Amino acid sequence: MRWITILLLFLLPFTAGGARRDDIYNRYVKMPSKELFFIANSKLQLNKPSNDTSLVCYTIIYNRYQDDAPVAEKQMMVETCMHLWSIYFYTYYDYPKCFEFIAKARDIAKSIQKPNPLIYLSFGAMYQTIAEESHNTPLNEKALGYYRQAFAVSQRLHDHLHIDMALTNVISVAHELMQTPSIAGEMRAYRRSNHGGLLYNYNLILYDAVSREEQGRKDAAIECYDRQIAMLGDNKQYSRLVYFTFVNKARALETMGRYRDAIATMQKPREIAKQQNQKDLQLEVYDLLSALYNKVGDTRQYTSNREKYYQLKDTLTSYRQVASVNEMEFQQQMNTMSDEIRDISHRHAVQTTISIVASAVAAVILLLLFVVYRQNRRLRESNRQLYHQNVSMLKAEEEQRQLRRKANVTKVPEEGLVDSIVEVMENNDEIFQPGFNVERLASLVGSRYRYVSQVIHERFGCNFNTFLNEYRIKEACKRMNDTEHYGNLTIEAISSGVGFKSRTSFVTSFKRFTGLTPSEYQTQAKRENSYK
């Protein structure tokens, strides 16, 4: 039942959002598109969960659009698509929907021969973000191509704001691809414009920084990044630029082997990403910090940041899936309601709509509850089977151990060493001490530790740590099965009791060996023992 409760809590913002949007839809559906556009623009706040009014108004305009609309209406449609792209990109992280809107904006802009640099900037931002999340270099190549198009269009329009924005991204992605020399033409054109301003000077320094970095003049590049940081200060308007400048500096320090300086530099980007609740930036921060902590040998911080990275990535995936289902349902409901309002009287249409929406929401919730219930049952059955397999394996190994004790067969030296190793691992509680190592095992069996390591690798197909962890996990399973004596112990207590220094290492090893997490195994053990 707790699974169902958690699911309902997770879905509550979406189901509540759907009901709220239906009310907004009924309020605005008959308004002229021009008035809806004004209302939507006045309510829009990117990266905020309260974008329902803007989303509904823009969606109504989008659904009304006809290919034979007048030019003024097509221009409004281009801007509507751009705003929808922004909402789905910065709030919902729904890249397929983003592509739909931005492609529509591009096609309409071409049809009226009014190129818009923001369209190409948005394409570039989308491909660059996906490339960073998936570490896909070809997508960065695509992003660079779109940023170059944005720069070219902005130049033709003498649009200095978007010239600056486009060039910042051209330089950044070209540097990421190690193709900075290829943008020399854009830089010459940019310098000729000589339009001045903070962003203009920022870009000139950025180009100098990445050029020096690629030439191996790392210290000179660091000086450039420091000049940019001083230039931007704590200006909230340029917080993303501040973020990227600190990240660029940290990456440069990393290439110089100054890992701790790079870690210190990354604290500012982490603060900005957290303050702005920018999930894409937070992902990048966790990814970079985990790599840096790994290089300085800080296992605890490496594990912590890596876990945060994967948790956030999984959260974004789940969020996108649920949001996508919710948005598809919302779109279908709006289309249905629009058709009914056109075909019948307003009052009857509203009543019918309320019934349809209520039934649809109830049906979806019931279906989700049923799916979760079935999945929960399957998971419990799978856990039960895995538990019994592990119990049977432990029992079989215990029987084999008893047979070996009774046997008295002369062994060749290497087999004798193997038996000695197994004897220690099965009968000496010293292996559950945190400091137990291969040197101590070698001492106990009267051999050299290198030879012991070699024998373990050749006869058991693993290194010493994996070999040791397997015996510790088996002991942990035995203790969890013995609920009479160990039933009140926590996972941490059992973990430390068999020699593990960290919960993370214990959980990872336990899952790899048994197929279950320690919590799942302990729960199943208590359930099985309660039946006896």
Question: Could you characterize the architecture of this molecule?
Answer:
Residues about 1-15 and about 410 have low confidence and may be disordered. The longest helix is centred in the C-terminal third of the chain and has 61 residues, at about 345-405. The chain starts with a helix and ends with a helix. It is flat, with a radius of gyration of 31 Å. The chain has helices spanning about 1-30, 35-45, 50-65, 70-90, 95-110, 115-135, 135-155, 160-175, 185-195, 200-215, 220-230, 240-255, 260-265, 265-275, 280-295, 300-345, 345-405, 415-425, 440-445, 450-460, 465-480, 485, 490-495, 505-515, 520-530. The protein is mostly helical and about 525 residues long.
Strand and helix layout:
Layout lengths: L1 H27 L4 H11 L8 H13 L6 H22 L2 H17 L5 H18 L2 H21 L2 H17 L7 H10 L4 H17 L3 H15 L6 H17 L3 H7 L1 H10 L2 H17 L3 H45 L2 H61 L6 H15 L10 H8 L3 H12 L3 H18 L1 H4 L4 H7 L5 H12 L3 H13 L2
Helix pairs in contact: 1-3, 1-16, 1-17, 2-3, 3-4, 4-5, 5-6, 6-7, 6-8, 7-8, 8-10, 10-11, 11-12, 12-13, 12-14, 13-15, 14-15, 15-16, 16-17, 18-19, 18-20, 19-20, 21-24
